Each structure stands twice: as C-alpha cells, then as structure tokens.
User: Fold these one by one.
Assistant:
Number 1:
Amino acid sequence: MKRIFSGVQPTGNLHLGNYLGAIRNWVTLQESFECIFCIVDLHAITLPQDPEELRANTREVTAAYLAAGIDAERCVIFNQSAVPGHSELAWLFACLTPLGWLNRMTQFKEKAGKKRDIAGLGLYAYPVLMASDILLYKASHVPVGEDQKQHLEFCRDIAGAFNRQFGVDYFPLPEPQIFGEAARVMSLRDGTAKMSKSDPSDYSRINMTDDAATIRTKIRKARTDPDPLPGTAEGLEGRPEAANLIGIYGALAGISAEDALVKFEGAMFSAFKDELADLAVSVLGPIGENMKRIAKDPGYVEGVLHRGAERANEIAQRHLAEIHDIIGLLDA
Ligand code: TYM
C-alpha cells in the first residue's frame, strides 16, 4: 500500500521553504497516494507556545494546506493532539529507543544549544514522537524538506528495531521523498542559513501570507553579491545567495536550476530580482489571498479538522490494537 504521512508545526510564520519544500509537493502527491496531512501541535509544544497563538497557528496551517490545493475530501487533514494514539505510540517506542540514538540528533543540539540541562524531555524525545506520527498509520512515504532527513532515518531505525525485537514484519520502513530545487530554501539574508520560522528577521523569509508589495520588497532587499549571474552551476560555487535565489526561481517556475541559469546568464541581480518577484507574487499571491479568505471561517476550518481526526483515529485505533497484541499488552 502507498500511504503518505507528513506534517507542519503550527509555530507561526509559514514560509516559502515550507511551501516549496513540503506543501506544494503534497498537492501533486495526493493524485497517486492515500494521504494523511497533520498539523503537529504536540511537536510545537516542545518549545513554549502562547495558547491563543497556538490555536490560531493551528487554524492557519490548516488554511495553508487547503489554500495550496490539498483536497480535504480525498486527504485526511487533522491536528495531532486530536488523535491520542500519537502520544501513546511515542511511549511504546520510547521504551525501545537507545539514548545513544537520540544523542546523535542534530536538531536537539541546535535547539537546546548550551542550555542542555534545562532543555525539556519533550524536545529531546521529539524524534520518537515524529516516528510515531508516521508509523501509527504505517505510512510508506514521507514527503519533507531536506532538514528532516535525519529524523526519517531515525524513524526507519525505530521501525526496524520494533520488527526485530518482536520477530515481526509489522512496520514498513518509510521512504523519504525529498524533491528538487527547493528541498532546502535558504534565508534571504544569509545564503548559508536555512529559511526558518524562528529567524528574528522577517526579511530573511517570504511568508505565505505576505502581500505582493512585501514579497517584492523582501526580494529586492535580499542579499546578493556584485557579480552578474553565471550560466552554469559551477559558476555558483562560493555564491550561496545567488544559488539560493536561482533555486527558488527554478522551483517556482517548475524548471531546473540549470535551466534557470541558462535563462539568466549574464544578467545583473536587479533585473533577475524583478523577474523573480513577479514570479513569486504570481505563485504565492493567490495562495495567501485564499489563506486569508479561509481563515475568516474558523467554523469551516475546524469542521475539516474534526472530520480528519475521526478518520485518522479509526486507522490509529486499529493499528494500536495490533501493536498491543504484538507487545503483549492485554486489551481486556
Ligand atoms: P517544520 O514544521 O519545521 O517544517 C514543515 C515542512 O517544511 C519543510 N521545510 C523546508 N523545506 C525547504 N526549505 C526550508 N527552508 C524548509 N523549512 C522547513 C520541512 O522539511 C518540513 O517538511 N519535524 C517536522 C514536522 C513533523 C513531521 C512529522 C514531518 C512532525 N512529525 C512526520 C513529516 C512526518 C518539522 O518540524 O517540520
């Protein structure tokens, strides 16, 4: 069976990286896979969140899925906390996770920084919860941006460890689907740092809800170097900002970075940026407008989440009963 699971954290500032690296690909994949798309609120609370903002951000991510073209009839869309099975499976997996595996995870090191001793257990155990998200539905494929690669390797390790420990072939080893030019969109202010929701500078990212004027200003102000654009990929070496903008152009236009370079060989950044801004506005403008329209109807958004949670729960309960049986937990 081909089943997709993927998710986005409701932590605000949904940006071009989330769109190009993940959500946009899901829209295509829903044609050929059974899809489950989650708003992972339990992951969001691994760092402190304001309760009102968390609720608003959960609705906003749902609106982004719908506005980008994910079909709520065909796909299951829900928020993680509405399906208790995620937390339960995370515990069952925690019991077979060696600490050494968690110690290797780079995200914890980045997020906890030097404050390791006061960082939360939830932040440390984050990859266990993520593995549970995917395996609760026995998903075979997981479309994500490149930054999630290590978490997916961890998920495959957990699936293998469970199967080995209990001598079963129960969990599939899910395949990551990491696509194309925009698997890692970089900051507009620093071509060596990932575009991120948590960057304090709003000029580092294009938000999915930015209006046309804001998108244009951010692209115009994006950091570049003084040289004209090269015609080949080798010419981008040591020019991370140029490489990033070319990658974004290619992803938005649906062409390869090589083809984008052929188109813009010799161009100055000012001319290239005007074309990039036009393209970004034409792609993101309607989605942002749609998001705002959908967000005005919280009843509709919550209806989608409610129906999605019911459908997700059904699958989760069926699998959890099987998992209990394999582990030897008595369902009396
Ligand atoms: P999150 O919320 O950070 O990001 C959501 C999706 O956007 C992708 N992404 C990017 N892609 C390209 N360039 C970027 N700069 C960029 N920034 C983010 C991410 O790779 C992701 O696909 N741990 C996950 C959420 C999660 C999940 C899951 C994903 C929880 N459980 C199960 C898949 C399956 C996260 O924090 O994503």
Number 2:
Amino acid sequence: MCGIIGYTGSKQVRDILIDGLQKLEYRGYDSAGIALHNGSMRVIKSPGKVHDLVEILPPALDSNTGIAHTRWATHGGATELNAHPHTSSTGKLVLVHNGIIENSAQIEGFLKNKGYSFISETDTEILLNLIEYEYLANGKDIKSALVKTFSLVTGSYALAIIEEDKPGRITLCRKDSPLILGIDKTGFYVASDIYAVSEYAGHFIFPGNNDIIIVENKSKITVYDVHGNEKEPEIKEFNAAKKKPDRCGYEHFMKKEIFEQPDILSDLVGSEYKIEGHLSSGKNFNDILHSISRITIIGCGTSWHAGLVARYIIEKYARIPVIVEYASEYRYRDPVINNHDLVISLSQSGETADTIAANRLAADAGAITMGILNVRNSSLDRETDFQVFLEAGDEIGVASTKAYTAQIIQLSRLASIIAALRGNEAKSQEILDALSQISSNLRYFLEKNSNITDLAQKYASSSNFLFLGRGLNFPTALEGALKLKEISYIHAEGYPGAEMKHGPIALIDIDFPTMVILSDNENRTKMISNIKEIKARGGKVIAIINEGDTEAEQIVDDVIKMPSVPDIISPVLSVVPLQLFAYYVALLRGCNVDQPRNLAKSVTVE
Ligand code: M6R
C-alpha cells in the first residue's frame, strides 16, 4: 500500500513532505521516512507513524527537492531498515515505492550474481538496485534504466526517484499503483493521491502505466512512454482543495463518523441521484439500464458487505439478477462478462487495488462500468464509465461506518430507478418511502443508545463472538463481525442464522457469545428458533430487536432496542449499534480505534 509524496521547486520541501505524509497516512502507518537533496542526499526514517518521524526530524532542513513515504509493510517487518526511502548500493539513487514486485526473488538472484548485497528484507531494495544496475550500464540515464527495468519486473509499482548527480530532479513512473504529478508556479509535486498536494497544485498529470516523467529545474517536464519515446504531457486543471479533517470535539474519528450518519443519510436521500460520466458511444445511463441483463457488484471488505445488502434489494424490487463478488476473486477467476453487464465497483476510497484491477478486467471484456465511490478524483473515479458519489465526507477512521450506510442508500436508490424504468412504479416508490424514514429513526436511536456502553463493558473480555443474521441482515452480521475484529482484535465470525447448525454451533458455550440481528420481520421467526438452539447449549445471546418485541426479550440475555422500520432499511439501522458496540469494546481493550494494528484505510496492493 504505502503513500508517496515528493516535491522539487523553489520552496523549502520539509513541511510539504510532512503535510503530505500526514494526508497519506490512510495508506499505511508502519513506518515513514524522507530523503532530501541539498547538494548531497540525506535520508531520515523511522518505524511507526508519521508523528514518530517528525519527532526525530531537525526543525529546519534546508532543501528544495525531496521524496517521502509512509509504509504499510509487505516484504519485511516495520523496521527502520525496511522503511523507505531506500538508497541504492552505490548511493547514486534514492527511491520510494508503492506496490509489490512479484519476481523479486528472481531479480535478487540475478543481482547477487553481479555482486550486489542487500541490507533490508524488502522487494523495493531489490527493485532499486536493478534500476541502479541498469542506470550504471546506461551512462546514468534514468529513463533508459527504467525502460529496461520495466521489461524485467512483474508486479505493481509507483516510484519516485532522486539522483545524486541530478539535484533538483525527480523521476516518477507507475504501473497499476496510483501516482500523480501536481504542478504550480513554484515547481512539481509527486503524490499517491491528488489530495496530498491539492492545497498547492491546480494542474495535474495522471501518468499512464509505465509512462516515465522527469521533472527538474522548477519548470521542465519531460514525459516518455514505456519504450522511452518522448510524448506530449497531458496537463489537466483541477480544483480539488479539501478542508483538513477535524474530529469536531469527538475523541475519535470513528465515533464522529458514526454520529454523522443521520445527517449524511438524510442529505443523501433528499438529494438528486446524480450519475456522472459518459460513454464514448454517447449512450446515457438510462439507455444502459434498458439494455443490461445483469448487475455485478465488486468490492472488498465492508464495501462487499454493502453489495450483499444491495443484492437483496435490487433483485427483490427491480427484478434484475445481481452477482456480488470479492474483487480479488473476480479478477482471477476468468468470469463470463459481456456488454449487457453493468459492473459496479463499490469502494469508499476508489483506490483499492483489487477493485481497480477487477474493474479494468470488466471494462476490457466490454462491460459498462460504474463506480459508487466516496472519494472524487480517485483512481476508480477516473477509470469507470459512470460514477455515483456517496457524499459522506472524508472517512478517516480505518473502520468504515458512514460510507457503508451511504453505499446501501445509493444502491437502494439505484434499485428504485431500475424498478421505475422497468415499469414498476409502486416498488420504486416503496423503496423511496422506506429510505425517507432512515434518518429520523437513526437519530432517535443514537440519542438514546443508553445500554451499548454497558453491553461493551459486559462482553469486552470475550475472546470470540458469533454474529448471526438472515436475509437482508445476513450481511449486517458479517459487517458487525468485521467491525469488532478489526478494531478490538476479538475473533468474530458472521453467519447466516440457518448455517449455524452446519458447523459453528459446535463452538457455542457459555464463553462464546452470539449477537443476533432480529430487527427485520421477514426472518424474525426463523431467527427466534436459531436463538433457542443457542440457548439450549448454554450460549449467551445479545439480540438487536425491534422495540416492543417482548417475546425475544424474554429468551435472550441482553437486547439492543431499535425503532421498528420497514424491513428494507433495517440493515442501515441495525448496523449502527454494531458499529458502536465495536467502538466501545475497542476502547475498553485499549486499542487504537482510528488506526488499528496491521491495517490501512486503503488497501492499495493486492
Ligand atoms: O475503500 P474501499 O471501500 O474499497 O475499501 C474496502 C475495504 O478495504 C474496507 O471496507 C475495509 O474492509 C474496512 N477497513 C472495513 O472497515
């Protein structure tokens, strides 16, 4: 994953790099480092977060050229030696890398035969020394070195390189990992995303796969294609300035983001359903909806769960077949795709590597692609035919909360549009009527969520948790389990209620609690039977129930009461107590709620 930032120009680089690293920390926070060129090259790095690096940096560092990196470890632990920037064997090149070099073992063998040795455990150091080997063999010509390297490596990379002999120059290139070049009057900014530099730059170049861009002397840009032939730079104007994220008085971003949901969802439900983008054929989105025979939703993690909820809604109300698949599986299983498929990439960040690759696969096979995204100007925004935005504001907590509920809303609204287009106005309106009830009910629940902290206290010392739901709320069970495990490190599994008898019930004992989502009417009776099966085996049950469900209240150990709403929107409501439960349990266990261990907000490597 990792975040890359760089600058060369007339400004001092230190604060630009630190500011950029802080903005890119969502891509990884295992270690951070910077490299400066001020006549000679200097590298400073540290394990841990960006603030750990800042603590060891001298307050003033005189330099106008530098590159920096925040890492999510792939090859080798989170140590200072493995941290980027890496320096090549002769010290001629310093590089930062986002991606994975898949044939690094083979390249390592080749370089060892040439006398190279390595000090880190990273694929990046191997890649760098291959570039250096070619650099020295090609008269220190970085462009020729990269063209040769491209033909020798497999994998993904976004690279920024500085050369000892070329002060004031940065070379960048990418393949399947994002990297942009920002431009202002003072010089050039290299970054993993536009927002790391949008405060400074108004013009951007989005390099294609294996383009090589050399920026130097404050204003000179040269762009080469994969073969090393010079090409015209394509400069685009963007005003993408963003406010700095603010916790607004909340202790954690995650809590703020949970409590923002009523406002965000009510704004979303009340807004026009805006479909951006176009097809070169000129066909509009309504034409497309008439011609498609199937919808495939791809995503990862929480986004995949939102896709699962949407499948129930779209199939039930719009009567069109829906497939929901992990992007990481879809991209490698040779799926049957044709030009009557609408493939929806569901992604908060728009930067998830597997989702981007799966989207490319679908587009190449002729499908119409659509991104349902939170982050504008992200890779998936650029790469999909059509886009719908979640308008949820920055989601900073690693655990996705408001993006999940906004995804369900935007997909439900799509279901309503398709139902209407297919002539079923009543079904279409039913969805809209239900959506209009979400915010007030959510607000009411959040204002009186009195017992969740008590329940967190009671169950925080559990080592395991089972989450059960059925139908529309089976994905809620998956999502509740994911929230708990990712921020509190409690092992949790989500299952459809009926599947419990096929194995997981063997786990149940007095120390293995189950959270049951019982807040939709469609599956209530069946779930009551499942609860009885757990109770008969001595298991503890917490149930999310509708207010007034005294029957359920009597058979379980604890309840979380939700206002009764139409079934179709119950997944949006029932997930919120699960988000809060995970949050409070994580706090009680002393976990870092916003930046849990081993994770990153965006998973930008496969
Ligand atoms: O940005 P995306 O929606 O594509 O991210 C997908 C997953 O990485 C993400 O939902 C992840 O599972 C979250 N940490 C879950 O809270």
Number 3:
Amino acid sequence: MKVIITGGAGFIGGNFVNYMLEKYRQYEIICIDALTYAGNLETLEEALADPNFKFFKADISDRSSIYNIFEEEKPDIVVNFAAESHVDRSIEAPELFLKTNLMGTQVLLDVCRKYGIQRYHQVSTDEVYGDLPLDRKDLFFTEDTPIHTSSPYSASKAGADLLVQAYHRTYGLPATISRCSNNYGPYHFPEKLIPLMIVNALHDKPLSVYGKGENVRDWLYVEDHCSAIDLIIHHGRIGEVYNIGGHNERTNLQVVKTILRELNKTEKLITYVTDRAGHDLRYAIDPTKMHDELGWFPKTSFDEGIKKTINWYLENEKWWTNIISGAYKEYYQKMYQNR
Ligand code: NAD
Ligand code: TYD
C-alpha cells in the first residue's frame, strides 16, 4: 500500500507520518510538502532516515508538479493535510488561503480522479461549522450541523470540504472527510495558542490572551487525531463525513493558567490584548458517529495531554528555538506589538 500524505512536514501531518511509519511497516509513505514557514524537515528527521519513506518538496496547487509525482508513484491512498492553517494570518492576508486550501485541494481531487485512487481523505476542521454560543453547553457540532464560517481560514476550508463532497457525488471519487477540533501536542508551530504560551512562559514573556479569554476550544491530543484518521481511511464509509474530538473543552484562560501552573510561572505574565476580529466563541464536537461506527474515542484527557506536551517542549528546545529565531520573529513583532 502506498500512501501520499500532503502537508506532512507540518504539525498534524508530521505526527501522522510518524504514526503511519511506525504502525504499518509494510506501507510506503510518501510526503508532499511545499515547506512553507509552517513546514519543517526537522519534524521528519526520523522519517527521512526510514527506507519506507519518501519526501517531495512541491506545492499542491502546482498542477504539473503534482501530476508528475502521481505519475511516478501511483499511490493507493491520499490524505490531504496541506493547508494554510492559522486564523490570524488568514485575517491579515486571505488570498494564499484560497490558493492553497481551495485550489490546491482541487488539484489533488483532479489528480486522484485521473489515477483512480482507492481513497482520498480530506482533513477538514470543525471551524467549518462556525461557532456555538458560550451559554448553551448543551449544544455540540454534529456532522449535520450546517456549514457557517467566520474567518477566511474557515471559509477556505469549508470551500475545500464542499468541493470534496461534489467530486464524490459528481465523479464518484472515493472520498472521506474528517472535521476535527483543535489539536495540540509535539511539533506544534509556536504561533498557535498552546505552544506559543509554553514558549513565552519559558522566556517570562507576556502571554497575550485575546479579549477576556472566555472563548472555548475542544482540545484533542494529536495522537488521537492520527488514530481517528487511520480508522477512517481503512474502515470509514466512502462519501461520509466524520467529526473528531470531544469532551475536552476549556476556556483559553483555563488553558493559559494550566500552562503557567505546570511551569511554575506567575499569572502576572497574562496580558489581555485586543480581541481577534470575528473571533469564534465556542467549538465543541459530538463524536458519537466516530464512536458508534469506528469504535473511536479520544484516549488522552486534556490534563494528561498538556503535561505530555509541556514535557515535549522542555525536552525538544532545539526544535522550537530554530523556529523562533528565524523569519517567525518578524511575524511575531508585527502581530503582537501595540496590540
Ligand atoms: P500546519 O500549518 O502546522 O502545517 C501545514 C503544512 O502544510 C506545512 O508543512 C506546510 O509547509 C504545508 N503546506 C502549506 N501550503 C502548502 C502547499 N501549497 N502545498 C504543499 N504543502 C503546503 O497545519 P496543521 O495544524 O498541522 O494542520 C494540518 C491540517 O489539519 C490542515 O488542513 C488544517 O486545516 C487541519 N486541522 C488543523 C487543526 C489544528 O488544530 N491544528 C484542527 C483541525 C483541522
Ligand atoms: P489558535 O491556536 O490560533 O487556534 P484557532 O483559532 O484555530 O482555534 O487559537 C486558539 C484560541 O486561543 C482562539 O480562541 C484564539 C486564542 N488565542 C489567544 O488568546 N492568544 C494568542 O496569542 C493566540 C495565538 C490565540
């Protein structure tokens, strides 16, 4: 079995490459990644030394490069993680989000049609559902919740998600889609809430909380996301959407305070800054379908996962120091100075 994983040098894709290489020793794993600011070959250090692994540097929206790779490799399964993934960046500059997330997905769908792929899996997001109110704890996203987006990021992901459904219905492409909640864990780029707060706390720098810190996210340890996708690509029903996540809701302030407590740092580091434009209030997944059809349930609680994550950042300082000393420094200054 040959599996192409796009975006495999990023956070979740990188964890998925490692997961698949370890679990399926008889598979060939091929990564396609453009190595944008968010892609990092250091995440794939072990994989690159594995004879079952191959890496191609290519942009998923570059049709000729992608067709050439498929002509050479003729994969059985494609899992598409490649995306521009940061909401704040999408608010600053939406265009690239459409190019990569929407047009890039279209190129992959076309090439999968041409080469008669067995399975195409689209890694979508719960952000396609928009948000839930803070005062209705009884409400959750199910697979039937209408798509209703808030940010250019979520709109571009929703466009891709709908395009995959259209290719399945119109052309019979054997596709599945997963809509996952917020992930955290090793190799998470330190512009997203959890790794950014860990790195800032370690440097005794201000921890910038948007608005009042009341927004709620449903946190999923990245390994649980990998096991869910593994189940879907092998046992999920073609044409179906699966929600992934559940039961680990925290306000942003709770998350930040937990990190400070674990690192023995003062809460005085918390700084309230201007809220994100269009900020989604609450995400919360109902994972009943994944549980009933595929026997999946998140294994790692937030309390356990956050400890593992913090330890990983303490033990892998070189990985993130290389990132924050590079071009990312400029982005950080632009986004957080005078906010
Ligand atoms: P990430 O930003 O860490 O990684 C994205 C990867 O895609 C990077 O390696 C980057 O180099 C690559 N990439 C970007 N543009 C590309 C292009 N045009 N061609 C090829 N490669 C390109 O993102 P992530 O957090 O690992 O998210 C992966 C996927 O999961 C995304 O599709 C995202 O929408 C989805 N998702 C993420 C979360 C989350 O909490 N992070 C939750 C649900 C869904
Ligand atoms: P983020 O990690 O960007 O994920 P998403 O926006 O896709 O959910 O942000 C998680 C939450 O944390 C979100 O409500 C915005 C908030 N946040 C902050 O309060 N401060 C920050 O510096 C960042 C990056 C995010």
Number 4:
Amino acid sequence: MDDVLTGLLRPKGIAVVGASATPGKIGHTVVKNLIDGGYKDGIYPINPTADEILGYKVYKSVLDVPDPIDAAVITIPAKYVMETVKECGEKGVKGLIVITSGFSEVGEVELEKELVRLAHSYGMRVLGPNIVGTLSNSDKLNASFAPFLPLVGTSSLVSQSGALLIAIDAITYTRGIGFDKLISIGNMSDVNIADTVGWLNEDESTRCITLYIEGLKDGRRFINECAKAKKPIVVLKAGVSEHGAVAAASHTGSLAGARHIYGAAFEQAGAIQATDLSDLFNSTLALSLQPPMRGENLLIITNGGGVGVLATDSAESAGIPLKFAPETVQEEFKKHMPSFGSAKNPVDLTGMAGNDWYFETTKFALSHDWVDGLIVLYCETAITNPMEIAQSLYNALKETGITDKPITTSFVGGERSDSAMQWLVENGIPAYNDPDLAVKAMGTLREYAVLQDLKNSPINNDHEVDRQTALDIIANVRAEGRTGLTEVESKSIFKAYGLPIVRSDLATSEDEAVKLAESYGYPIVMKIVSPDILHKSDAGGVKVNINSEAEIREAYQTILTNAKAHKPDAEIHGILVQEMAPWGTETIVGSVNDVTFGPTVMFGLGGIFVEVLKDVVFRVAPISDMEAIKMLDAIRGAPILDGVRGEGPRDKKALAEVLSKYAYMISDLGEHIQESDANPILVYEVGKGVKIVDARIILKD
Ligand code: COA
C-alpha cells in the first residue's frame, strides 16, 4: 500500500493551516469537524496570531509542532499557499489536503503546477486543490468542511464535485446507505481518480469503490487501475450528453461522443456505470453488501402476484430474464405454500405467507445449486409483521451459511416495511422500496460478475505486422505536408498489419491497369487516386463492374477526364485497380484518437444502420479477442450477423479477428493516427471470411 497516500488519507497527526477562531470560516470548521468527528491522532491548528482554537493549542507554523504530522489541511488563500508548502515539506508532512480554491479552475494553471512541483520535491502528495477535504469513518477523520462523518458503511466514495460530496454525506442518513470514506478530489493536480482507486483497492475498510467523475485526465491508466481492482467499482459520469471534443472528419468521429467512449472505457475497466444519483446509491448498496451473481439463474420469492409480475418484467430489462425452476425445485417449494400458490418462478407463496414459509423457501432457494441469485419480495399484509419477515430472511441466510450467492429484497408497504428494510440493510441484506430496484440491484451484481470475466481476458499482441512499412508511408505523407492518406497509402498500412484488404494496386497507365485487372480476374473496380479529391464518386472518379480489357481502357480515360474537369489543378497519383468483391453483409470498423483514452475502436453494420440508426459500439484499443467477439454481439443489429431471411450465419470469427487486428494497429500507431475507417467490410458466410473494400487514415496534426 502506498505509504504517502496512506499518510494523506488516513493520517496520524494532522495540521490545519489557516485554522481560525472565527466560527463560520472554513479554517474554523475544519478544526471543529476534526474534534466533533472524534479524531484522536493529534490535531494541530496553525495560525500566526491565535493562541488557542476550540481548546487546542495553536502553532505559528507547522515547523513549531513538536510531534510528527502526516497531513496538513490547507485553508489559507491561494497566494500564501506556496510558503506553507515549503514549511510542510521541511516538517516531513506526507500529504497536503488543499481546500483552497483559485488554481487551475480559474486559469491559474502555472500556480497549480508549481504547487505540485514543490510538494513533490519534498516527496509529498497533493489532494486537490479546490476540494472539500477527506473523511474516513474508520479513522474518525473529518478533515473537511462537510458537516459530519457519513453514516457508517463499507463503500468509499471519490468525488470530483465537492458540493455533491457534501450532499451525498447528508443523503447517507436519509437513505440509510453508509460509506466509510468520502474523498474530494477537486482539480486532481496530483492525486487523481486512478491513484485513489489503486489505494482504496488495498484499503481494508473499503468493500466497494464509488466514483463520481466529471472528466478523467489519463484514461488508459484509469482503465488499468480499475481492471486490477479486486473490489466492485461503480461510477457515475457527468457530462455524457455533450459531444466529445473530436472534430468529425469521419463517420467514426461523428459518432464518438463522450457517452460512447466513457461507457466503453468503464466496461473495459470492469466498472459498473450508474445512470443517475439514485442508481449510484442503489448499486453501491448492492455491491458493498453482496457477492456477484455468478450464473444466470435468478429466483424470485413473493407473497404478491402483482409485484412478482412487475419484477419478472424488470428482470428481462435488467438482463437476467427468469426461467422456470426445475421440477425438483418446484416440488420443494410446494411444501411451503397453499395449493393455489405457484411454485414456478416467481415462486408465489400467496398473501397467506408468514414467517415460516419465507424462512423455509429462502433457506431452500439459497442452498440449491440451481439458484444463482435470489430476490425476495414482500407486500405488507395485516396478517404479517414486516420486521418478523425481515428477521426470517436474515435467519434463513445465516442458517445456510452461504456467502457467495447474492440476495436482494423489496418490501412494499408503509413505515413498518421501511423500518424492516432499514434493519435488513444494517444486517447486510440490500432492501429497496420498489421491486424494480431490487431486480436492478441483482442485475448490477450479475453485470459485475460478467465484467470480471471480460476484464481478465488477455489482449493478443502476437499479430505479425510490418510496422516499418507503415511508418515509412506515414513519414512520406508528413514530408509532403499532408495528414490525409490516399486510399492506396491507407490500404498499404492496413495490409502491413495483416488486414484482409481486397486486392488492389495503383496503375499509372492504361497498360498497367489492364495487367493488374487480368491478374485479379474480372469484374474490376477502378477509382481515382488523388490527395485533392476526397469524394471520388462525386467527381466521377469511380467505375464499377468492369468486365473486359476494352472497358478497362475506356474507364481509365473517362475517370481521368472527369477528375480533371472536377478539379483541374488536382494532383493525380494514378488509378486504383481493384478486384470487385462479391456482395456480403456490410459492416464498418473505425477509430478516433480520443483526448482522454487515446485510440478507440468502433464497430457497426454499414449503410443505414450506421448512418441513420447510429447502431455502433466503441471500445478503447487495444482489445482482447473476447472483447472483439462481444463487440459484434453488442449492437442492436447483431442478429443480422447470425443470418436472417434464409441467409446463413456470417463469418463472425473472421470479423472478430479483423476487429482485434485493427484495434492493435491503431493502438500500435496511436501516436500518429487521428482517425481511420474500414468501410465497408464485407462479411461472407461462415468459413468464407471478410473483405475490407475501402480504408481511410487521417494522421494527427
Ligand atoms: N499560516 C497560517 N494561517 C494563516 C496564514 C498562514 N500562512 N495566512 C493566513 N492565515 C490565517 C488567517 O489569518 C486567517 O485566520 P484568522 O481568522 O485568525 O484571521 C485564516 O488563516 C484564514 O485566512 P483568511 O484570509 O481569513 O481566508 P478565508 O478563511 O476567508 O479563506 C479559503 C480561505 C482557503 C477558505 C479561501 O481562500 C478559499 O479558497 N475558499 C474556497 C474553498 C472552497 O470552496 N473549496 C472547494 C470546495 S468544492
């Protein structure tokens, strides 16, 4: 575990620089919070004039403090901070909790850099600046101006928004969902989200990591750090509706919004993405109390048919559709219900269900191998007591001794149900006031299990490539002052990375064109090659279905004439002669180099699917072979690849291999390539492979 970060987040000895005797000032509040929180490892207020604050001796400088200090909370105006940093460094402080605002968030970028440089020169780390502070229940540490320590819990939150952290602090009590640590991360000048994820993964009091993110600085490191984590991570990302900072020079560029790219990154990181604040809380509750749902079989026990049906609907949307329980399982349930109950799934114990029936069926369901996850629903009735039902569930769970199978619950009723649910949560069983939420929570536990498998799948770096050829082409394009590669150049790079490009070559004369065509066989496609003509068809620069030598010669001349008429001063490299690929299912693969995550890879079906329906999926490159296969199944139009209207299934294996090789190419050349497309890629029947018909690469400026 990183010692310096531990000094910062679980300090032994803490100074408050800018401590004030004046109530209402942040420097006063922090001292008061440390005292009220019960922190016992040494509080040292620092102030040039005061003698005593809230009963604590005040020092003029950290250098005057006789005891060791791990962390200093900085609550003085920005212009005085540097001097204090120096003194903290000389004192041997490990970490600075810089509450002060007035740094990069208001354009003072250099001041912030200087703060970090100075801190690092003493081996210190910086949390902030521009933060609320940091809180830890297990250390009784409220080193912040948030009003109190949160309700005790086993999840820890890292928040880029200070105000939201304060709000969540209060919500922990009203929602009854506790946290151990609340860490405000502000400008992330030094300690960033990836650092805290790495540290919390080692923190013994944290069982689940909850993140509120506005923007990441080093996306790839974030993914790697999360992927290493052995604890569940749930993340709420704000600002997914706005378009990413990518100029849309290609199809892929126009589709690569923050929602897609961040969503992909979270999935690869193995992090569950929450849809809103409520969802963040609900998922945190499930993930911090329950194990993942490792198989697909969900069982629901209920005393009400209505909530059972509602939950059945929700299960389908949550990705865990219900199946009927096997006969043997049903027979056992029948022993604990009247004849008019239902032992299928949902198991409807009917409104007559009392403590014993809930106890017996819960115990049996949890113990049975067929059941991978259990949801218990209860509607408040006049013949039952919600608290006793809750206790029956708890006792059943205890008696089975099972800890690797998840359970979630929903009690629908009034105050008595609310109290019972609070009791369940306090005793480690997630409870929600709506059956849909209990199902969603189970869906989250299932998603967690699925993501674990995905994030552990290895990336294949064993592709045979000719990197030097690609680099030579790129160098040549740059030497000519271009960033856009011609089709021939783009295709040559694709070929160098082993991608199945249709056979094609550049002809600079009619005779050459004929020779190439005869070596490929008819029919043939011919296209103009010019860095000045991007939209070849509009310029009359494309001829298809050419079937003889005479047609080749004629097409050669027509294309040249059309191109010159379209743009008289266009530089013309020649004419591309290309085998005409037979019809196949059209797909598209593309990439943009994202400012946060670097090269990304996109997949979709071609034509209207990408243009109108925008049915595409993104990942951050490179990707594992397993991720490539999952990408093919992740689009809405996925069934088309499995064969529709009498067509046989398409060669998904070959397509996934192309995706994986392409992702490798764009990450291997990530420092050069800004955007790229392979469009269309024609996919044939199983065993017949795929062909990339057109390819495009645009270099970084
Ligand atoms: N060492 C120790 N104490 C010092 C000092 C130094 N080098 N320089 C000044 N102080 C003392 C001051 O004398 C004052 O104490 P006093 O009340 O006894 O006079 C105290 O530190 C605070 O300084 P002051 O000038 O009164 O500042 P302030 O309390 O008005 O504001 C901040 C200080 C840090 C709170 C303010 O600059 C700020 O950044 N506010 C925004 C915080 C925020 O919102 N963060 C982000 C949340 S999301």
